[in-house]
Amino acid sequence: MSNVDNKTDVILIGAGVMSATLGSILKELVPEWDIKVFEKLGSAGEESSNEWNNAGTGHAALCELNYTSERPDGSIDISKAIKINEQFQLSRQFWSYLVKHNLIRNPQDFIMPIPHMSLVQGEKNVAFLKKRFEALSINPLFQGMEFSDDVDKLEEWIPLIMDGRTSSEPIAATKINSGTDVNFGALTRMLFEHLKSNDVEINYKHSVKNIKRTNDGLWQVKVHNLNTGVIEYHTAKFLFIGGGGGSLPLLQKTGIPESKHIGGFPVSGLFLVCNNPEVVEQHHAKVYGKAKVGAPPMSVPHLDTRYIDNKKSLLFGPFAGFSPKFLKTGSNLDLIGSVKPNNVITMLAAGVKEMALTKYLIQQVMLSNEKRMEELREFIPNAKSEDWDIVVAGQRVQVIKDTDAGRGTLQFGTEVVSASDGSVAALLGASPGASTAVHVMLEVLQKCFPQHMKEWEPKIKEMIPSYGLLLAENPELFQQIYNETAQTLGLSGKELVYH
Ligand SMILES: Cc1cc2nc3c(=O)[nH]c(=O)nc-3n(C[C@H](O)[C@H](O)[C@H](O)COP(=O)(O)OP(=O)(O)OC[C@H]3O[C@@H](n4cnc5c(N)ncnc54)[C@H](O)[C@@H]3O)c2cc1C
């Protein structure tokens, strides 16, 4: 059964943090536009954006070692770290705007201050960390970062990690107190509540099955209403595909030339979660280590204090793995179904090239619980198996595409793919992910609405005062914005004073 066509200005597919962010920005810029959301699950933020499905790190490159690489001459390239940090500052500003204007409330329910630390062992790694610290700490964005290779200091910073450590290998850490833990699930739910109270039509249990261009240039989505079993058709002038891992198959259905020669490679994840409150209380930081050889950058092990349901928790992981599903709630046929005549060579080339990754993922899938505990004991030497349970995290679908580096190159970033006329955009990839949602959605606006950007600029600057500027090059502005957003979001500790 089908019903009549319903026309609207904007359709957002998926109720994750990306659609939530785009919808919220658009509602501020053009409140008169009608927006509809279709989500196949029963509520918002249930897939990757859910608090149990991601690591909740406010990625600002304060602790993730994969954002700083060593050049052949031994110097450290910090350009990527600066870029990620700048992107996170945009999110902080937008969230702060929403709180200040009472569009969302109780920021402590979605963002909490937590020190971000990097921890390494071995002479070479310690030398790398020291150089990285020297390069970063003179940059305004990384002000306040400390380095220590002194065991007494480390015992003060990370008692749980240092207790019972017998190795005589050199060990060192950096610590910066401006880090955050972000509950992206709570944030997503708050944003959808805000959208709902601003007349956005949010349709849960509505699964998008097909996408077609109509003769008058609109996008028509065929939606299965899972509540009633009815097939509905809705059209919009602009379509955003924010289906998380499910975005690639939906993008392929649009048939736009930009959707061709792209594949997806799903990487699944597991965390260990501590069930002993006494252990949880002994740790207060997000501590990132170094990735193992062959491991993809997003499976760097880390031991994280998290705030979930207003309760302090402790999670370790993620352990990567392989599952052919594109969403946690997806189907085992997702991967094979995404192979099309136009991307089969790209996908095969990636398969040949990424043997080390495949080997790593197979090893990870085969890990027994005791082996996982052994990896945890590299962080917490005295960890007891009975204190830790396993939780299954979200799926990340990494983009495979042909690049200058060759056919079938695996990408670890996020990619906005849009039609040349800007009428449809999709978000693919998952790193650095939710933390940079505001930056990525501004990119969607720039690509899809270039004709409106001039007119929208004053409002964007009201929401995001640093828009168009680099904070690393404007230290006084950074200090002002940092301190203001810290106050609004309840992150105030020590104020930053630039000298
Ligand atoms: C293990 C792991 C750790 C991570 N850690 C971090 C971290 O520490 N920090 C960080 O910033 N990011 C992290 N991320 C990335 C972050 O979670 C994602 O980038 C972000 O949540 C993606 O949001 P989204 O809205 O694109 O997708 P999702 O939150 O997955 O939402 C997509 C929605 O679309 C719906 N959907 C899909 N297909 C259809 C369809 N056909 N019809 C209707 N609805 C559909 C889905 O049901 C889902 O609700 C992590 C991810 C994983 C998996």
From TrEMBL:
Cite the EC number.
Answer: 1.1.5.4
Q: Catalysed reaction(s)?
A: (S)-malate + a quinone = a quinol + oxaloacetate
The cofactors it requires, by name, are: FAD
Cite the entry's keywords alphabetically: FAD, Flavoprotein, Oxidoreductase, Tricarboxylic acid cycle
The reply on keyword Oxidoreductase is: yes
Gene Ontology biological process terms, A to Z: tricarboxylic acid cycle
Pathway annotation from the record: Carbohydrate metabolism; tricarboxylic acid cycle; oxaloacetate from (S)-malate (quinone route): step 1/1
Going by the record, the broad EC class of this enzyme is oxidoreductase
Question: Known Pfam families for this protein?
Answer: Mqo
Please list which residues make up the signal peptide.
none
Assigned protein family: Belongs to the MQO family.
NCBIfam families from the xrefs?
mal_quin_oxido, PRK05257.1-1, PRK05257.1-3, PRK05257.1-4, PRK05257.2-1, PRK05257.2-4, PRK05257.3-1, PRK05257.3-2
* The protein's name in its UniProt record: Probable malate:quinone oxidoreductase
What is the native source organism of this protein? Answer: Paenibacillus solani
